[in-house]
């Protein structure tokens, strides 16, 4: 196996664009369409992208915490804003920043 050689230029070259998580891309598509409910985004992901339709006994998609974690990450990076929890439900809403 031949050793890999780096130059000083390699060390200071601009980094490539970060690879975007496919789930994040789908979520941003729905946010851009005006869908703000994390629960509704889950339902769209299941229906349109073929995500796992498994549900908890409450009926909430198992996908829900993953979608919320992704939305929270997008909120941390300033791409979306967390609007709040929907009172009387177990849903959360976000909107495009």
UniProtKB/TrEMBL annotation:
Which one Pfam family would you cite for this protein? DUF3895
Listed name of the protein: DUF3895 domain-containing protein
The record lists the organism as Paenibacillus aurantius
